[in-house]
């Protein structure tokens, strides 16, 4: 039984989080809004896109100002100030998560996914297993398989309406000796868990016992809601671990222009990564990435706090609405990330009927859970970083669509 949140009113200035008029003219170029993609996946463009994990809001004005200054110079010489970038990321993490990071212990990479692809090749052998915890961000599987490695699945369990790690299965899989890497999603996309310190400690104890490297993707680290506390793998003093501190992609809406940042206190691991990225000349940023990242982490705090309050309000509204109006749908309350995960089994619809309900009646483009390795076609993910009024209208349409639909299973 989900307890209602008390503050699901819109308590922040929705003006700031309304897409600017300029966006409408170019929105067809955004993958999230691309009409060809929508037609291909959902069979219609008449849907609100809640699939790709991009936000629908204008970014923080200090970042826009930094970009404007950069453009006004009319000069794009080689430029990457990694010292200031790493110092800014460290200061941000100290302030937000009380996490002590040494600026010299970072390695810059082009992006989070390319970092994962590189780490898989650097630290595992062909055919070796890489463990993931499904349902999980679908690109993990693609990267593992395209590197010729084997996916080892430590499926998450649902206990009291919440996803948890199956530690017995985790240990069993590691004990077989064919897992070379654990690829953790922390916080977890799509189920919205923010792994607790004790869960991560338990995981680490087992990994240590079998000498397995942990790689922790922490790109959603800052989007953590009241009542939950983010723990970085970098704080656990496990020398056989690499943390992808991430980038300002998800928290500051910079998916198109951000880099990735790997962190490890272990110098031998760092040297291996540095050598690989240098060998491919991938070890630096560019002017856009550098200026955007510094502006975000040095001057973006007020905007980010307002953004977090806004999306937490949206989360609370959705959870309250579902509990009151559509209790037959299971809503997994996200502790972090702007993703919410639903189980529509209680509607007793066929997979085809459910898809029609969501796309044609509710006009919502949600991501099918099967993309994330979920076998049951009743699961869907929604990215709720959209204007609250739009989200509310979508859920009213969903409620109406459900009232009009006839279960045929
Ligand atoms: C867990 C996770 N990792 C990585 C990414 C993508 O990172 P990047 O665009 O920097 O490669 C996403 C995007 O949604 C994500 O959810």
Please render the helix and strand layout as text.
Blueprint: H1 21-26, H2 35-42, E1 48-49, H3 61-72, H4 82-97, E2 106-109, H5 112-123, E3 129-132, H6 139-146, E4 150-153, E5 157-159, E6 162-164, H7 167-175, E7 179-185, H8 197-209, E8 213-217, E9 241-246, E10 260-263, H9 267-279, H10 287-299, H11 301-325, E11 330-332, E12 339-343, H12 351-361, E13 364-365, E14 367-368, E15 379-383, H13 388-404
Parallel strand pairs: 1-13, 3-4, 3-7, 7-8, 8-9
Antiparallel strand pairs: 2-10, 5-6, 9-10, 11-12, 12-15, 14-15
The structure holds pyridoxal-5'-phosphate (PLP).
Task: Describe it.
This protein has 2 domains: 143 residues, Aspartate Aminotransferase, domain 1, CATH 3.90.1150.10; 237 residues, Type I PLP-dependent aspartate aminotransferase-like (Major domain) (Aspartate Aminotransferase, domain 2, 3-Layer(aba) Sandwich), CATH 3.40.640. Helix content is 40%, strand content 14%. It contains 13 helices and 15 strands. It has a 7-stranded mixed β-sheet, with helices on both faces. The protein has a 4-stranded antiparallel β-sheet with strand order 11-12-15-14, with helices on one face. Helix 4 packs parallel to helix 10 and helix 7 runs parallel beside helix 8. The protein is globular, with a radius of gyration of 21 Å. Pyridoxal-5'-phosphate binds next to helix 5. Pyridoxal-5'-phosphate (PLP) binds next to helix 5.
Distance between the termini: 25 Å
What percentage of amino acids are in beta strands? 5-15%
Major sheet: arrangement of strands: 2-10-9-8-7-3-4
Structural class: alpha/beta
List the ligand species. Answer: pyridoxal-5'-phosphate
Backbone shape: globular
Give the number of helices. 13
CATH C-level class of the largest domain: Alpha Beta
CATH superfamily of the largest domain: Type I PLP-dependent aspartate aminotransferase-like (Major domain)
Integer-rounded radius of gyration? 21 Å
Unreliable residue runs: 6-12
Biggest pleated sheet:
7 strands, mixed
| SSE order, one letter for each helix or strand | HHEHHEHEHEEEHEHEEEHHHEEHEEEH
Number of DSSP-assigned strands: 15
Named CATH topology of the largest domain: Aspartate Aminotransferase, domain 2
Oligomer: single chain
């Amino acid at each position: 039984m989900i307890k209602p949140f008390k503050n699901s009113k819109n308590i922040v200035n929705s003006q700031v989080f309304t897409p600017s008029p300029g966006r409408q003219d170019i929105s067809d170029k955004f993958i999230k809004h691309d009409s060809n993609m929508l037609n291909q996946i959902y069979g219609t463009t008449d849907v609100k896109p809640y699939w790709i994990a991009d936000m629908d809001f204008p970014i923080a004005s200090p970042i826009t100002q930094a970009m404007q200054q950069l453009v006004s110079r009319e000069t794009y010489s080689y430029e990457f100030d990694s010292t200031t970038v790493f110092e800014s990321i460290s200061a941000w993490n100290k302030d937000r998560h009380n996490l002590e990071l040494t600026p010299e212990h970072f390695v810059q990479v082009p992006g989070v996914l390319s970092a994962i692809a590189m780490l898989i090749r650097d630290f595992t052998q062909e055919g070796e297993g890489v463990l993931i915890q499904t349902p999980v961000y679908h690109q993990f599987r693609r990267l593992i398989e395209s590197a010729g490695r084997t996916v080892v699945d430590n499926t998450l369990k649902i206990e009291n309406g919440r996803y948890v790690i199956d530690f017995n299965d985790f240990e069993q899989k590691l004990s077989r000796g064919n897992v070379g890497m654990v690829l953790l999603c922390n916080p977890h996309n799509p189920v919205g868990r923010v792994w607790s310190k004790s869960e991560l400690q338990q995981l680490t104890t087992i990994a240590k016992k079998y000498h397995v490297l942990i790689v922790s993707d922490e790109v959603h680290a800052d989007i953590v809601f009241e009542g939950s506390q983010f723990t970085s793998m970098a704080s656990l003093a496990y020398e056989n671990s690499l943390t992808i501190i991430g980038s300002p992609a998800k928290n500051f809406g910079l998916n198109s222009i951000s880099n990735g940042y790997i962190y490890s206190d272990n110098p031998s691991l760092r040297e291996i990564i540095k050598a690989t990225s240098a060998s491919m000349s991938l070890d630096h940023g560019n002017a856009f990435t550098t200026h955007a990242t510094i502006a975000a982490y040095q001057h973006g705090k007020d905007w980010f706090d307002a953004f977090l309050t806004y999306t937490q309000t949206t989360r609370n509204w959705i959870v309250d609405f579902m509990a009151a109006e559509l209790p037959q749908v299971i809503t997994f309350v996200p502790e972090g990330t702007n993703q919410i995960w639903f189980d529509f089994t209680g509607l007793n619809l066929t997979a085809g009927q459910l898809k029609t309900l969501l796309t044609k009646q509710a006009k919502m483009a949600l991501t099918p859970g099967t993309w994330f390795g979920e076998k049951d076609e009743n699961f869907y993910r929604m990215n709720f970083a959209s204007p609250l009024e739009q989200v509310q209208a979508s859920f009213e349409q969903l409620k109406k669509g459900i009232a009009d639909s006839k279960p045929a299973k």
